[in-house]
UniProtKB/TrEMBL annotation:
This is Glutathione transferase. Residues 71-200 form the GST C-terminal domain. It comes from Haptolina ericina. Keywords: Membrane, Transmembrane, Transmembrane helix. The chain crosses the membrane at residues 240-259. InterPro entries: Glutathione-S-Trfase_C-like, Glutathione-S-Trfase_C_sf, Glutathione_S-Trfase, Glutathione_S-Trfase_N, GST_C, GST_superfamily, Thioredoxin-like_sf. The keyword Endoplasmic reticulum does not apply. One of its GO terms (biological process) is glutathione metabolic process.
């Protein structure tokens, strides 16, 4: 999962350069490099440390910026909410590579999303401080914010219309995080990744050697856009975090290569 990591890096004002994995050969070379434990991605690499798995990367970045939670209890709650969010979105991600993504979206909107939002609403009510954890802002707040941005993109509707009046605290929480000026800037910037389309699905299937679902295949006479190429900068800095990404299905959620340097990072509070 690339976007939760991207959003957290952006929130923490961590500069990074992003390179897109463009070919099956490039992905195989990344695996052959020995950097991917379990031959899985995403990958975080910093000063010889190599981490895979989205949750591990999020916790590492959060820990480096004081966003893991103030107490063991806060950390447990933050991890619980993040795990729940990542679990909730996975069927929708993998459905993009299935036969009927619209059916998966309908089920997500009617079953999965209401259940998740209902539980998060309860947590926000119990803690009564505006954030997921009693001790204040944590990485779980950023992951929740990114998830709701993702939901709005997938449903192609505003959060107010999606959640209606069933989640006042969740909506207030979203407005609170979007109130950070640098997050508002990021959301409207070219650094924000567009909603994945059929070209994305075709490119990913080609890179991973997966069958391309019928809904994403080119029709006779149509022209497909090329796979993402070249280098694209986040908070660009040749000395910052390097981030290579590829969205995929099943257990491979994103091929990410993060190579940060030791450098001063702006405070998040």
């Amino acid at each position: 999962l690339g976007d939760p990591v991207r959003f957290l890096l952006e929130f923490c004002l961590i500069p990074f350069d992003e390179d897109t994995v463009r070919s099956r050969e490039g992905f195989e070379a990344l695996k052959a490099s020995g950097k991917l434990a379990f031959d899985q991605v995403p990958l975080l690499e910093i000063d010889g440390l190599q981490l895979v798995q989205t949750q591990a990367i999020l916790r590492y970045v959060a820990g480096s910026k004081g966003l893991r939670g103030y107490t063991p209890a806060d950390q447990g709650v933050a991890d619980m909410v993040v795990n729940g969010i990542l679990d909730a979105r996975m069927p929708l991600i993998t459905a993009r590579f299935g036969a009927d993504p619209q059916a998966a979206l309908s089920k997500f909107e009617s079953v999965t999303l209401p259940r998740l939002v209902r539980n998060v609403e309860r947590i926000l009510l119990a803690h009564d401080g505006g954030y997921i954890c009693r001790g204040g802002l944590s990485y779980a707040d950023i992951v929740l914010f990114e998830f709701l941005c993702y939901v709005a993109d997938e449903c192609q509707a505003s959060l107010d219309s999606i959640l209606c009046e069933d989640a006042p605290r969740v909506l207030k929480h979203h407005a609170r995080i979007s109130g950070f000026p640098h997050m508002r800037e990021y959301l409207s910037s070219p650094r924000r990744k567009p909603r994945p389309d059929a070209t994305f699905v075709r490119s990913t299937c080609a890179i991973l050697g997966m069958p391309c679902p019928a809904h994403a295949q080119l029709t006779p006479g149509s022209a497909g856009s090329p796979a993402p190429v070249a280098s694209e900068s986040g908070r660009s800095s040749s000395r910052g975090w390097s981030f290579a990404a590829l969205g995929v299905a099943a257990t491979l959620c994103a091929a990410l290569l993060l190579m940060p340097t030791r450098r001063a990072m702006a405070a998040t509070r």
